[in-house]
Design brief:
The chain is of the alpha+beta class and 230 residues long. The protein has helices at residues 8-17, 19-29, 33-39, 46-57, 61-82, 88-100, 105-120, 177-190, 200-210, 219-229, and strands at 129-132, 142-149, 157-165, 168-171. 55% of the residues lie in helices and 11% in strands.
Length: 230
């Protein structure tokens, strides 16, 4: 039997029509992520995560996130290098791995800028990004998961990227790490989930600096914003 193709236009139209109802349910009832997935399965596709984010904010999720990250990544890495000694071995290792890259430098620079952000803000990268040698359940509530395999050089090869919410994988086979971070951010908005307390500054930077949503910043994020503009 031939598999029926998905009519994305029809789905998007219905998701537009049911937006008010869906937001009312999510905000007032505060359902579990698993319940939202059962009720609104289309919401957990890349197209509808981006569409829902636009419905809420009128901001293009992917274009804004990737554009801002590319704009600021070089300066972020300069800040990381200038104070690498203050952030321990994790930051040093991250920068060393970037220096070892010989191809697709722009993409690796963007990944390094993202991975270094929690470290620079005195938060733990492991609370946001989890790496796995073999597929297994993650215990992180809101995170991005990379599956790694051994490589012939010193750097592991990333075989897949997934998004975890409430200790369950909700999105698999994301094309790259920055896109996964953007989708995670979009899902937190779509599902009305508070930013994790242990990563509040990291997500504030994504919200206020990268996505330009809101102007009032904490002192820590305002300090970073000032440094980026120098």
């Amino acid at each position: 039997m031939k598999k029926r193709s998905v009519n994305k236009t029809y789905i998007n139209s219905n998701m537009d029509l049911t937006f008010s109802l869906r937001k009312k349910e999510i905000v007032e009832a505060e359902p579990l992520v698993s319940e939202v997935r059962e009720r609104w399965p289309a919401l957990f596709t890349e197209e509808q995560i981006c569409a829902e984010f636009y419905r809420i904010t009128t901001v293009d999720l992917m274009r804004t996130f990737h554009g801002s990250l590319e704009k600021h990544s070089a300066q972020l890495i300069r800040l990381y290098r200038a104070r690498r000694g203050a952030f321990g071995d994790d930051m040093q290792s991250l920068l060393d791995k970037l220096d070892e890259q010989t191809y697709d430098i722009v993409a690796h620079r963007k990944m390094t800028a993202l991975k270094g952000l929690p470290l620079f803000l005195r938060e733990k990268l492991g609370n946001l990004l989890k790496t796995r040698a073999k597929p297994k359940a993650s215990k992180l509530a809101s995170s991005v998961v990379e599956d790694h395999v051994a490589s012939s050089n010193s750097l592991p090869t990333v075989t897949s990227v997934a998004i975890v919410l409430e200790e369950a994988v909700v999105f698999e086979d994301v094309c790259d790490l920055p896109t996964a971070f953007a989708l995670l951010f979009g899902l937190l908005y779509a599902l009305n989930i508070d930013f994790p307390k242990e990563l509040k500054y990291t997500f504030e930077v994504i919200q206020k600096l990268l996505m330009d949503l809101g102007s009032q910043c904490s002192a820590r994020v305002q300090s970073l914003k000032t440094k980026l503009l120098l």
